[in-house]
């Protein structure tokens, strides 16, 4: 690993700084769906600072507003495991920290390996991978693709997995997948990675806005859009009809119910929308209901079933695959315990031959997950067939290395790291509750209290907010 420290004074992690960053996306209904009508897209954000004073590691857990302070507190609870660790050793073996963090028995009791603590571990572990890639001078996708397959296997936790995937099988998948990697990396740089957009489909948008954004997606080179459904069937039929008319008969259109339905309802509702030729139905029921997903899949065929953004860990993904419950696996870069666990998920999907179409959108999820899909293409599965990365066109301007979309494709990041670093001005503005935006918002609300008027930009109002 590259670094600036001398052998006499090895650089160490000097500080773990955390921030509660929230954006008022609920005021434009960006991100709205049947289960989450008023999300304020947020990041429990972490920065690993080092004694070498150069590279920093950046990571975050994505939430949608209230509770982001709880997520920050969970990251804070991990600080003692990180501060003081030698940087070179940490970056040479991120798995060592992963194991230490999931192995704290008292914190593990809060999961185990799921929920707020697991997401906190993911934020910290991802920050380590960001730091490691920066020290190597490579974007993370290239850092992973160039890595020795045996080392990558050493980063995967195979506990609970070996009935479905053994280390030897994983090593063979990576060795086989690495053949021709240089040619695929060149093709990736030339063409990019296919994307689909959810931007037209938020449930709170008017039909006019849906139609305009759907037509725009076609013009911009996307080959798939996604609509939120599940609140009202008649509304869904009307919106699906408008979207299908906007994009034409041969354009892929996916649907996302965001866990709204029980199993029987999911089957009946999806069949009612079948006339619009949906490509997949996403999160049709509880993300924990493996057998329910399998039943839905049988009941809605040939519509595909997709899920994964709320799947807790590699073990649940393993069972979804073993049960034949999904056609599309939608891993999330910040839901599980970071890159290490997502490597396990990618390897499982490759073993079972199920395409990965990651969940993105949110705050910075597009920035992160592009690296995982690009690694999968270059050095694991070797294909982008029936594979797309979700794209949502907001909040990218707050990142130092934002995603770039051209002709419906993600352009591969070139800057070293995991593309997770936010601009300091954005941190200063949107840190809750004392950042300049939120302080001014609170002052405005206080000034209008008791006057019988509504503060400009109050949640649910159609007021432009500079996010």
TrEMBL record:
Q: Answer yes or no on keyword S-adenosyl-L-methionine.
A: no
Q: Which domain of life is it from?
A: Bacteria
Name the UniProt key words of this record, in alphabetical order: Lyase, Magnesium, Metal-binding
Q: Does the UniProt entry include the keyword Cell membrane? A: no
Q: What is its EC number?
A: 4.2.1.68
List the SUPFAM superfamilies.
Answer: Enolase C-terminal domain-like, Enolase N-terminal domain-like
**What are the Mandelate racemase/muconate lactonizing enzyme C-terminal domain coordinates in residue numbering?**
207-303
The family database entries (Pfam families) matched by this protein are listed as: MR_MLE_C (PF13378), MR_MLE_N (PF02746)
Q: What class of enzyme is it?
A: lyase
Look up the record and name the cofactor or cofactors this protein needs. Mg(2+)
Under catalytic activity, the entry for this protein gives: L-fuconate = 2-dehydro-3-deoxy-L-fuconate + H2O
Q: Which residues form a coiled coil?
A: none
Which PANTHER family does UniProt cross-reference here? ENOLASE SUPERFAMILY, MANDELATE RACEMASE (PTHR13794), MITOCHONDRIAL ENOLASE SUPERFAMILY MEMBER 1 (PTHR13794:SF58)
Protein name from the UniProt record: L-fuconate dehydratase
């Amino acid at each position: 690993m590259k670094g600036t420290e001398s052998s006499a004074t090895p650089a160490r992690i000097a500080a773990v700084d955390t921030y509660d960053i929230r954006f008022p996306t609920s005021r434009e209904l960006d991100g709205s769906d049947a289960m989450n009508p008023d999300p304020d897209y947020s990041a429990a954000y972490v920065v690993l600072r080092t004694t070498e004073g150069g590279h920093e590691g950046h990571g975050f857990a994505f939430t949608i507003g209230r509770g982001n302070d709880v997520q920050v507190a969970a990251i804070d609870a991990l600080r003692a495991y990180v501060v003081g660790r030698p940087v070179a050793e940490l970056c040479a073996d991120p798995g060592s920290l992963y194991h230490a963090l999931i192995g704290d028995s008292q914190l593990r009791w809060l999961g185990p390996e799921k929920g707020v603590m697991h997401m906190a571990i993911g934020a910290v572990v991802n920050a380590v991978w960001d730091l490691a890639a920066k020290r190597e001078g490579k974007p993370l996708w290239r850092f992973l693709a160039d890595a020795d397959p045996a080392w990558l296997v050493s980063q995967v936790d195979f506990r609970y997995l070996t009935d479905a995937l053994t280390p030897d099988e994983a090593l063979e998948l990576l060795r086989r997948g690495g053949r021709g990697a240089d040619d695929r990396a060149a093709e990736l740089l030339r063409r990019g990675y296919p994307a689909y957009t959810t931007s037209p489909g938020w449930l709170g948008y008017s039909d006019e806005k849906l139609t305009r954004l759907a037509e725009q997606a076609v013009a911009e080179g996307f080959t798939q859009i996604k609509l939120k459904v599940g609140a009202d069937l008649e509304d869904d039929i009307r919106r699906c009809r408008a979207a299908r008319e906007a994009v034409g008969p041969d354009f892929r259109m996916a649907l996302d119910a965001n866990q709204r339905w029980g199993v029987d309802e999911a089957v009946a509702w999806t069949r009612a929308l079948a006339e619009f030729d949906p490509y997949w139905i996403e999160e049709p029921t509880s993300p924990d209901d493996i057998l329910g997903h399998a039943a839905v899949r049988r009941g809605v065929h040939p519509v595909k079933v997709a899920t994964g953004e709320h799947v807790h860990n590699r073990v649940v993904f393993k069972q979804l695959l073993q049960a034949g419950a999904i056609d599309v696996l939608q891993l999330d870069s910040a839901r599980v315990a970071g890159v290490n666990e997502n490597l396990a998920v990618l390897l499982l999907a490759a073993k079972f031959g199920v395409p990965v179409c990651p969940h993105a959108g949110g705050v910075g999820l597009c920035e992160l997950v592009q690296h995982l899909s690009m690694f999968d293409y270059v050095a694991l599965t070797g294909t982008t067939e029936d594979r797309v990365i979700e794209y949502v066109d907001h909040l990218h301007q707050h990142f130092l290395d934002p995603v770039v979309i051209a002709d419906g494709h993600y352009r591969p990041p070139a800057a070293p790291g995991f593309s997770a670093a936010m601009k300091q001005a954005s941190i200063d503005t949107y840190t809750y509750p004392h950042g300049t935006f939120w302080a001014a918002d609170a002052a405005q609300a206080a000034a209008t209290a008791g006057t019988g008027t509504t503060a400009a930009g109050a949640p649910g109002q159609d007021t432009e907010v500079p996010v």
